[in-house]
Amino acid sequence: MLSLWRRPAFARTLLLHTSRPLSTTTRRNNQLEEARDVLGESGVPVPPTTTSTDLTQPPSPLAEGENALFEVPPERDPLLQFLTTSVMKHGRYARAKRVISDMLLHVHTLTRAPPIPIVREAILKASPAVRVASTKVGARAVVRPIALSERQRTGKGIKWIIEASHDKPGKQMQVRLAKEMVAVIKGQSSALRKKEEAHKSAMVARGSIRSR
Question: 67: pLDDT confidence band, cut at 50, 70 and 90?
Answer without folding.
Answer: low
